[in-house]
Amino acid sequence: MTDITPKLPLLAVAQNLRAIGLLVAGIALFSVQDLILKLLSGNYPLSEAMVFRSLTALPLIWVLVLFDGGSRTLFTPGMMRMIGRGFVVFAPYTLYYLALAALPIATVVALFFAAPLFITLLSVPMLGEKVGRPRWTAVIIGFGGVVLMARPGTDLFDWAALLAVAAASTYALAMISARQLGRSETASAMAFWGNAVFLLCATLLSLIFGAGQFEGATHKSLAFLTRAWVTPSPQDLALMCACGVIAAIALTLLTQAYRMGEASIVASFEYTAMIWGVIFGWMFFADWPTRTGWIGISIISGAGLFVLWREYRAKRV
Predict the structure, then answer these.
(1) I need a surface site. Which of 74, 124, 142, 151 has the fewest CB within 10 A?
(2) How far apart are CA 292 and CA 225, in angstroms?
(3) Are 301 and 111 in contact (CB under 8 A)?
(4) In whole angstroms, what is the distance from residue 153 CA to residue 290 CA?
């Protein structure tokens, strides 16, 4: 009988490489969606963009469900947990989009990547995990980078930075609460229920703000939330619908990446979003991080990557 033991590590490496490829592709697509939503944020309300995005994504995700086990994968014992996960995930993405309306893309992305630091912070009370001194040190340093970029108490402070930090913390909560879900549910099923919740919540926001009774805010984030619905131009409608196509594909790519690969390895490649944030900000909005911005980006990225590396090391011991 042939001994296959030496091949197992190579198989794991191959799976991780495929997962990394899927995640990098998904992050690139989501970065394009960030760009589109920032371009639309000055003329349309967030709820309108999200409704068209979710409606467009719905049939596309349904096709993915059919090819990934069929409708039976939607109605499993974990269905309510998947729906609950959709509500939890809705909060960070909404906060993130609102921050995008007011801040440079690279700044929002950098602040959002405090999420691994929040995950470490929350893993102690929620999962009972033990966190050593090196990781606590990295968390403290990483949050120092967040403060540096947000610059509270200065004339350069914009409270939209708090929206990005809140997005990171609620995203961490979503990841902590759903850590085990991917082991029993398909990527397309989670994407389907997540999109359904997005559509429901976007519709509710439309009912609250869509008539324009709260319109008139001068801050870009509040204006993006409270602006009344307007009839989009054909080009802008196409952009909103393109977000649905992007969401359907990218959500599935990311979920599949985490189902296939080791999370502590795959997650480090989410930081490729920083590259796209800087490139798109420079190309479309003439935004280029200041020296302080670069220092903050480096601190947050370094601390987050160190936390992920320590988690990987701990699992190998």
Answers:
(1) 124
(2) 29
(3) no
(4) 18
35: pLDDT strictly greater than 60: yes
Whole-angstrom Cα distance, residue 58 to residue 281? 30
One-letter identity of residue 87: F
Question: Could you tell me if 45 and 215 are in contact, meaning their C-beta atoms sit under 8 angstroms apart?
Answer: no
More confident site: 221 or 267? 221
Which residue pairs from 288-291 have beta carbons closer than 8 angstroms and sit at least 24 positions apart in sequence? Answer: 289/104, 289/106, 289/107
In 3D space, the residue among 273, 263, 264 whose CA is nearest the CA of residue 297 turns out to be 273
Of 40, 35, 42, nearest to 222 (Cα)?
42
How buried is 8 (Cβ within 10 angstroms: 0-12 exposed, 13-18 middle, 19+ buried)?
A: exposed
Which residues, other chains included, contact 246 with Cβ-Cβ below 8 Å and sequence gap of 6+? 29, 30, 32, 33, 36
Residue pair 115/166 in contact (Cβ under 8 Å)? The answer is no
Tokens of 242: 């393109």
Q: What is the pTM of this model?
A: 0.82
pLDDT digits (tens, 9 = 90+) for 100-144: 999 999 889 888 888 777 777 776 776 666 767 777 787 788 878
Residue-level length of the chain: 317
Q: Give the pLDDT of residue 82.
A: 87
> Can you tell me which residue has the tokens 């020296």?
291
